[in-house]
Design goal:
mainly alpha; Growth Hormone, Chain: A; globular; transport; transmembrane; MFS_trans_sf
Length: 475
């Protein structure tokens, strides 16, 4: 128990200290800002706090549901294991299929409208949890799959498009720091959501209550979006030009950086989803291996471990924000840019998974898992920043959706092949480690030189990369 408490305390203190250091640095940067940029910096701050509350409400609604989906199906409704697996697989398949068209619709008819559609769709998915009928639950999983695709594409698309449309790239708020803040606060919301979810279940006596609480958050987010957000679009000229989605996809996939981002997204986030599925069993096994003489195994504090994982993720995201701030200040983007951070995060993730397989120790396994979670905290702002730089506004939501198609099928296939036992779990971690190693090599070879840095805003030119090959439209 001391292992888990000590690690949690160290990570929390480290996160708070690094966050305070970053806060003081940002405050000093504001004091040093030129008079002409003060108004733009204020606009950036206003925009940040227009988007962040909605983002946190949306992510909070997702975190509230996460811990209770399986136990609601299995324990409260008494569904068989194969039925539960079928429902989970249906959600991933729906997410993969919807990824082929929801992004295009959002680009064409508006990202703000798509964000509100997400709120309604996810709320309907939550309502289906009140029924124990298989058909109703299946409909709920299908709606949840569509909502997941929307959640991970349209909100980010709206934010990045507005960021550049308002010329906030000329302010002291970088896109990297925005993504870093989002990931950090998301970790805080995850911990709070766990506490709130457990409280409402204890008060109501039913595991459907977190889903009802999620509806409240979703409706609140929708009201804020409707009243405070303006609409933005992608390239709506495609339809008049007769350009099909198939030809658009072919044009998009000509850029090797998009393909590599898609591969990295698939293997990293796929490994993350599988890690979520296996980590508790892996720690149980490591605990038993490290204490073979103990007849009655002591309980593992899973709640504390989850909080520790979230603290690790926050520390990773804060470290990325601090690094990107230093890079922006010293103009050494080639050394501390998101592509290089991403490469390091994937490499460390590879090592953490493989070490947990090779060395059976409770302490080492736990620390490896914390390291993996820290890499997740680095990965998300890196990937968001890279997508924001590489993908143009015209097809942003479409490309973001396409990037999630292989991810969903990857997770479905591996979940369908899941078996009981340590040997299978070790094979899965080893397989994921191998794919992550390939992702490390590809990221180092193809992303580091072509995605770092932008033209100087003082030049008055639109943002593009050194090779001038930003994807903007399927031309």
């Amino acid at each position: 128990m001391d292992l888990y408490r000590t690690t949690f305390a160290v990570l929390v203190v480290g996160s708070v200290g690094l966050a305070y250091s970053q806060y003081r640095r940002d405050k000093e940067a504001l004091k040093d800002a030129k008079a002409g940029s003060v108004e733009l910096n204020n606009a950036a701050t206003a925009f940040k706090w227009k988007f962040i509350p909605v983002y946190l409400l949306v992510m909070g609604s997702d975190w509230l549901q996460g811990p209770y989906v399986y136990t609601l199906y299995k324990d409260e409704y008494g569904l068989a294991e194969p039925t539960v697996a079928m429902l989970f697989a249906a959600g991933f398949v729906a997410a993969a299929v919807s990824a082929t068209f929801v992004g295009s619709l959002a680009d064409r008819y508006g990202r703000r409208m798509a964000c509100m559609a997400f709120c309604v769709t996810y709320a309907l998915s939550c309502l289906t949890k009140l029924s124990s009928e298989i058909v109703t639950l299946l409909i709920g999983r299908l709606l949840g799959g569509v909502a997941t695709t929307l959640m991970y594409s349209v909100f980010e698309s709206w934010m990045v498009t507005e960021y550049f449309a308002r010329s906030l790239d000329r302010s002291n708020m970088t896109l990297d720091s925005m993504f870093g803040l989002m990931t950090t606060l998301n970790g805080v919301v995850a911990i709070l959501s766990g506490v709130v979810g457990e409280s409402v279940v204890a008060m109501t006596g039913t595991k459907t209550s977190p889903f009802m609480a999620a509806i409240v958050l979703l409706m609140t987010a929708m009201v804020i979006i409707k009243r405070g957000w303006n609409e933005n679009y992608g390239d709506r000229t495609e339809e008049s030009k007769g350009t099909s989605d198939e030809s658009s996809l072919r044009a998009i996939l000509k850029d090797k950086r998009i393909l590599i981002l898609g591969f990295v997204c698939c293997v990293f986030e796929g490994s993350m989803y599988l890690f979520v599925f296996f980590w508790s069993a892996a720690l149980k096994s490591a605990h038993a291996y490290s204490n073979p003489s103990t007849k009655e195994q002591s309980a593992i504090p899973f709640g504390l471990i989850f909080a520790t994982f979230m603290a690790s993720m926050m520390l990773g995201s804060i470290a990325f924000s601090r690094g990107s701030s230093e890079a922006a200040a010293s103009k050494s983007i080639a050394m501390l840019g998101p592509a290089h951070f991403l490469t390091v995060a994937i490499a460390v993730s590879t090592a953490s998974l493989l070490i947990s397989v090779l060395i059976k120790s409770e302490t080492l396994t736990f620390w490896c898992f914390c390291l993996f979670e820290g890499c997740i905290g680095i990965y998300y702002p890196c990937m968001g920043a890279l997508r924001g730089r590489i993908v143009g506004d015209g097809v942003r939501a479409k490309v973001y959706g396409f990037l999630r198609i292989p991810l969903n099928f990857f997770v479905v296939v591996l979940l369908c092949l899941t078996k009981e036992g340590d040997a299978h779990r070790d094979r899965v971690f080893t397989f994921c480690g191998g794919l992550l190693l390939a992702g490390t090599v590809l990221s180092a070879c193809y992303l580091g030189d072509t995605t770092e840095g932008t033209k100087d805003p003082e030049d008055g030119e639109s943002e593009e990369f050194m090779d001038g090959s930003r994807i903007d439209s399927p031309a």
